[in-house]
């Protein structure tokens, strides 16, 4: 298992160190009044992270962790309470920063009367692109997302995967260097997920930086080079997935033991005496060789269990270590955050007024 405290496992040599998304000590407090009085929600509590040029950075966290709030601040839709957030060195929300970011919301709505091409024309116009530029860019993007040849069909005919790939194309219309994707593969079948993943791969290869929010851990493992795990408004861990899911940590260990001349009942009795957690039958698989699984995570714990098996006069026939996964890392981080304080009230406050957005980020909604 991973260490319990917040830790950073950055390794500067393995990726570009040019910070595209730079966040320091960011806080966001929503406050307001209800019939019970004043309520405050600390949605972000001192968040710091960097996403570097050319990487796919994943933001993970359970519901209410603060992911959407962070993304809204990066896009300039919500104002932070304190701390700094910048994109390409420009304050998040400034016109300069917005011009360099494309956004795919979780549920992009493209009017049903559109074809893929007319939708891109619409978004291109919103980004104040010329007609020639729109045609050129649409051709490029339709090919990139694999919708060439389908561009005159009504989006009504589109599968979810095609719709999502069109969403990626709209986010890319003004050729931003940073793409912010909110749950890009949510609701897609395996084929659709694979198609979207392939587009993301091609974008990464072309040098774009991708910042994505997802709760599908297997997807994140496949797509992202680095991740931040958030819970209760804080970053619990940040770094390369391989580093976070440390190879020397386990999630569980399976033992196989036996004892000369002992019946299965005697063997079970000896095991239960030494490992009280095996009182439940579901944890113990009976047979001449008994099998059981313990939730051990460190080598020391494994050594200790082996010592106990030997002291009980049992012989160890087999030992299988299951290495920790990103899910184990995530669950541990979330468990830890739950043991900390932070009961928050939930009252919306009126958010800042939303300035006209240039570029394809115009599809962002003022979600209060
Ligand atoms: N406008 C708002 N007014 C008051 N509280 C809010 C507002 N927006 C979000 N919150 C609260 O802030 C906290 C963080 O919410 P946020 O939507 O950022 O989390 P999230 O990680 O994106 O969750 P989810 O995965 O469910 O979308 C939650 O407790 C949420 O209820």
TrEMBL record:
Organism name: Novipirellula herctigrandis
Location of the ABC transporter domain: 21-257
Gene giving rise to this polypeptide: yxlF_6
GO molecular function ontology, one term from the record: ATP hydrolysis activity
Protein name, per record: Putative ABC transporter ATP-binding protein YxlF
InterPro entries: AAA+_ATPase (IPR003593), ABC_transporter-like_ATP-bd (IPR003439), P-loop_NTPase (IPR027417)
Pfam families named among the record's database cross-references: ABC_tran
CDD domains in the cross-refs: ABC_DR_subfamily_A (cd03230)
Keywords, sorted A to Z: ATP-binding, Hydrolase, Nucleotide-binding, Transport
Taxonomic lineage from the root: Bacteria, Pseudomonadati, Planctomycetota, Planctomycetia, Pirellulales
């Amino acid at each position: 298992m991973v260490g319990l405290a917040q830790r950073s496992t950055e390794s500067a040599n393995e990726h570009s160190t040019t910070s595209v998304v730079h966040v320091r000590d960011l806080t966001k407090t929503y406050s307001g009044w209800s019939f019970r009085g004043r309520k405050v929600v600390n949605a972000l509590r001192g968040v710091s992270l960097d996403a570097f040029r050319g990487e796919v950075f994943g933001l993970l966290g359970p519901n209410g962790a603060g992911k959407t709030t962070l993304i809204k601040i990066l896009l300039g839709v919500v104002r932070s309470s304190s701390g700094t957030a910048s994109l390409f060195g420009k304050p998040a929300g400034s016109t300069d920063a917005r011009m360099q970011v494309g956004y795919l919301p979780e549920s992009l709505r493209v009017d049903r009367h559109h074809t893929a091409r007319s939708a891109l024309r619409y978004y291109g116009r919103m980004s104040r692109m010329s007609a020639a530029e729109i045609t050129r860019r649409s051709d490029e993007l339709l090919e990139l997302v694999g919708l060439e040849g389908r561009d005159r069909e009504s989006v009504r005919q589109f599968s979810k995967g095609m719709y999502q790939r069109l969403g990626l194309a709209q986010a890319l219309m003004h050729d931003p260097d940073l793409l912010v994707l909110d749950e890009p593969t949510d609701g897609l079948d395996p084929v659709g997920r694979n198609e979207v993943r392939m587009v993301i791969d091609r974008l990464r290869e072309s040098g774009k930086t991708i910042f994505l929010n997802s709760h599908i851990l297997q997807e994140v493992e496949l797509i992202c080079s680095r991740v931040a795990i958030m819970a209760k408004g804080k970053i619990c861990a940040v770094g390369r997935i391989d580093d976070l899911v440390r190879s020397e940590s386990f999630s569980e260990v399976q033992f196989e033991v036996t004892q000369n001349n002992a019946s299965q009942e005697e063997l079970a009795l000896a095991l239960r005496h030494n490992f009280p957690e095996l009182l439940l039958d579901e944890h113990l698989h009976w047979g001449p060789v008994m099998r059981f699984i313990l939730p051990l995570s460190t080598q020391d714990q494994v050594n200790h269990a082996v010592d106990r098996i030997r002291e009980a006069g049992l012989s160890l026939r087999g030992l299988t270590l299951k290495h920790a996964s990103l899910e184990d890392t995530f669950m541990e981080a979330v468990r830890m955050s739950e043991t900390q304080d932070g009961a928050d009230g939930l009252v919306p406050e009126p958010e800042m007024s939303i300035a006209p957005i240039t570029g394809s980020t115009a599809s962002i909604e003022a979600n209060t």
